[in-house]
Amino acid sequence: MGSKKRSSSSVEEEVEGKIDAVTDNVVVPNPLEKKKMKKDKKVDETLSIKPMERFKKRKALDKERRHAAVSENEEEPKKPKQLRVESVAGEDHAPVVSSLSSGLPEFHIDVFKDLALADVKVREAAAEAMVKELQAVQEAYERMENKDFVEVGLKLEAVKDDGLKNCAPSVRYAIRRLIRGVSSSRECARQGFALGLTILVGSIHSITLDSLLKLIVDLLEVTSSMKGQEAKECLLGRLFAYGALARSGRLTKEWNSDKNTPFIKEFTGILISLALKKRYLQEPAVSVLLDLIEKLPKEALLNHVLEAPGLHEWFEGSTEVGNPDALLLALKLREKIAVDSSIFNKLLLSPFIPSNLFTAAHLSSLANCLKESTYCQPRVHSLWPVLLNILLPEMVLQVEDSASVSNSLKKHKKSRKCSSSEEEIAKNFQCFCDVIIEGSLLMSSHDRKHLAFDVLLLSLPRLPASFVPIVLSHKLVQCLMDVLSTKDSWLYKVAQNFLKELAAWVGDDDVRRVAVIIGLQKHSSGKFDSITRIKTVKDLMAGFKTESGCMLFIQNLTNLFVDEGNASEEPSDQSQTTDDNSEIGSIEDKDLVGTTGNSDFLKTWVVESLPSILKYLKLDLEAKFRVQKEILKFLAVQGLFTASLGTEVTSFELQEKFRWPKATTSSALCRMCIEQLQLLLANAQKGEGPRALANGLESNDLGAYFMRFLSTLHNIPSVSLFRSLSDDDKDTFERLEAMEKRLYREERNCGLSTDANKLHVLRYLLIQLLLQVLLRPGEFSEAASELIICCKKAFSASDIPPSSGEDEIDGDATPQLMDVLVDTLLSLLPQSSNPMRTAIEQVFRYFCDNITDDGLLRMLRVIKKTFKPARHQEAEDEEDDSDDENFLGIEEDEEIDEAKTVGKRDPEASNDSDGEDDDDDDATSDDSNGGEDDNAVSGEVGKEALDASDDSDGGMDDDAMFRMDTYLAQIFKERKNQAEGENAHSQLVLFKLRVLSLLEIYLHENPGKPQVLTVYSNLAQAFVSPHIAEGSEQLGQRIWGILQKKVLKAKDYPKGEAVQLTTLESLLEKNLKLASKPFKRKKSAVSPSKKKQSASWTRHKMVTSLAQSSTFWILKIIDAGKFSESELQRVLDIFQGVLVGYFESKKSQIKSEFLKEIFRRRPWIGHHLFGFLLEKCGSTKSEFRRVEALDLVAEILKSLVSTDESGQDASKKVMKSHLHELCDLIKDLVTNMPEKQSRRAEVRKFCGRVLQIISNLNLNRSFLKHLGSDAHAACEAQLGENFVNLKKVER
After folding, report:
1. pLDDT grade, residue 1073 (50/70/90)?
2. Whole-number Cα distances in Å, 205 to 285, 531, 1237
3. Which of 395, 704, 1035, 1139 is spaced 20 to 30 Å from 605 by Cα?
4. What is the distance between the alpha carbons of residues 902 and 897, in angstroms, rounded to a whole number?
5. What is the CA angle 522-525-528, rounded to 5?
6. Collapsed DSSP state (helix, strand, coil) of residue 1046
């Protein structure tokens, strides 16, 4: 472009070049001028190019003169121009070719501008318009007899050597401009000009191929003076020009007309030569050749393309240098010619068949070619789709995939027969993955790892599910885990996208889903999600929606658990190291982690995954029950039994074969299986809903199916339990099994009844206990015996034989059945599993209606049990007030001394406890030691604590105590050892939380029973006690929640004659005292932190709120009792005492708003206390209390006023009886007005309200009489118009 050859061309060529540069940005005639235009397009010339510009302008003027000479009329410029370029002030305008004088049609040059636009439709329209015009010009030109005149007058540029003598001048111009345009990088010029060139060359046959090839080389010549980008533009221009020629079809037509044409060989050689110039030209050059190959017949390929110069050498050296494009061309040529050729020997073996192409040896030789295909990233090289089409033929794999789906649900996959073609495809794919994916790409750079993921994604649409284990190999899964475990990894998003596309490929296909889950977990020891910190496996497992999919998954998990060869063939050292570094505590059993390898990790995941299948599964009851049975059989076989002879046992009764791993399953795995079995049974019991058909209990009763399955398997001689039991445990196991069987019969006989439900929950508790005996032998024999006794006593089954002598209890000493049952349940609670606790709660729910007071108190005693604080702490507390008493201490005689001691502690001890939230329902407390902040314990109580025995279970030595007391005694024994103190405390808190769950069930089922008061008083005492609630934030929060939701805010409340007024009076008095308690700070040399002070204040507000809410609740119960006035006198005395403390004691912190709310809710209390309140308001010395109490008086007055006539008479009567006290109060208020303005306003407001009521009741004369004349002046001065108006009305 910048050579001398181009500089010496005609004037029109240079002018046109300038037009191109300014209007279309297609070709810049001079490199220096191009550089200048990039810097400043407004500058026309520089010193270095002034001579050239002068030469170009001179040539343009010569051209104008020649045009003027051949014009027939000097006025012709007014008509369309004859290819004239006007340059005004350095501006160039796109010309329009008009050949009216020569007889040629018009050709609009501005069409080239549209060829460079981004809009595809505009480019296509412009190309078609251009070709249509040029065809018309060419046809007119060919019809002309005298072409010399046109040659002289309209000759454009370089007509001597372009070889286009048979073409019209406009066609020559268009060809040259199109060739130069494909080298422009402006917008879409390359695409548009190439499109135009393709259509033009294919439409006008006067354009000869030799001339066109020569023009491409001449116009897009790369010289040594060109810079890198400029040379690149020219090379790309050549590529697009050759592509236009290949797509035009001219070469095919040339071969059809002349079988010996040299242009096909020449063209092929040129493209090979171009591909060798730059790496980025290789693939597009081969793409151009492939376009040509598709249009040429087989004979032309054999005689011309394969014989092209340079092609043989290019193929020969491709494997050494790594040329993927040569391999691509060879594969496409071989596919087209369908015969073997020696030219492919280095790339394609002879005979060419897939089994030869994908052998390990040949793939190794092609590895360089395939690895080097990464140069075109992020796009995948065109070679890979071609290779995968050969590797995975679509039709064959569709057949094979459907076969795998139909056969995957069979019991034994090994029995499936594959055709030879399927086996060959699988073998080829396995070899491809081993050699190329794993051996070459995954072991290399990040780019090649990226390519490996892209290639595998490319293969997914054709991949059958049976090939997933080949794709998700150990190395690939390890690579995924390594990448995804570090978010900063360069390949992190690539790996994420791979898993995303893999999940999308899985879709709703359960066969694929199972294969992917097994592949990921098998090679990650069951910890893929844990190491990668994503939820790929979890999300895939949540996608099971069909019974067949679940069954297939269970079958594969069973095979994975039993077939140990899978895990052993992996390099355990590397994966073990990765797991240790990346695992986030998915395995809780430390012994398992320390003593087992990858196989146990994987088996652990299998065991944990089986029950989780049901979590998101939505099936009908029958289908879900079948899935549950399959899971249950696996857990029972692998967790409970072992085979003494071999690893397979066939049960003829069940008509099923069971398998075990060759190596003995570890005890940790067996325990895990039992735990999951317990969880499965508990979830099945929850999901049963109400008992349905009496005759169909067994159909959906998973517990009954398990016991039958257990009995059948246990009776097989070659099958034994996974552990040997002691005589006691063995006897317990058999008795539990027999009792469950008998209860099951009774349940079926009961049909649909409450007894059937009770029998059902007892059966499930027996089953859970039976599994617990296997899980922890030696710990539950005594509890099991007691539970069996309860079952016998609760249901007198005719087929239950008399128990042995050890189970009999003397008649006189026999406790209540519910006491024994409650004690047994409590003894099972402390160390039971979650499923066991669920079974206990279900039993308690159905039997709690009959619980005795003694059994209830046993449960409450556990909640109130606490560790004694250190002696020096109690000694410090002796300095505090000694007038406090046991809050809500309504314990029965049976309660232990320790509970009483704790109960006598001051409720103010809670004032300094920790808390975080002021809200009543959401308030919580810190886990600080309550003893440290307790500063309100009386000296008497402190002395009692000092003198008390260190043995906290003093009342537990009675023989009538049960296993629950033994457990508590053990906890307190551990407390003595300071090293185990924290553990003992946590155990006690956990035990309390479990008992609280039972109490919550009781309150829910029996909201109206009098025993609710007992539960309330004990729970409130535990909450207020700093040593109980403050010891654990969770415990305090749990007690608070139960009190609020199940007691104080419950819809129902205790009613009936059994509710004793004395009990209510005692509770009321203690709650009012607690509501009056002031907030006290700890007397200490070291001031507490702000956080502790804030927590103590929050705790104080919670306790006060509890006392207030409790007062309202107790008053509601009293109102519902309909007691007489004489019976309620004690209640009024209690309130009167509270008011005395309110007016006379500074320690009383009871809120006036609280009292006001009491009077609003229970007006009868205010009416009875009206006179006393008036008297105390007048006599109190505290101005603040007096003004504050006026609101209480106003609230009572509001309730006294009635609108109806009968009510007004009663109100008038009451007001007359208290008129003297009311007048004295007003007289005292107006004569001794408060100093503060706000308080004076309150007094005036109150007096105005009183005067209004007096006026409404027509008591003006009596009021003024009792008020006395001496107070009238003060009232007029302070009350103003209100009092004056009252006097006027009286007159």
Report:
1. very high
2. 25, 67, 112
3. 704
4. 9
5. 85
6. helix
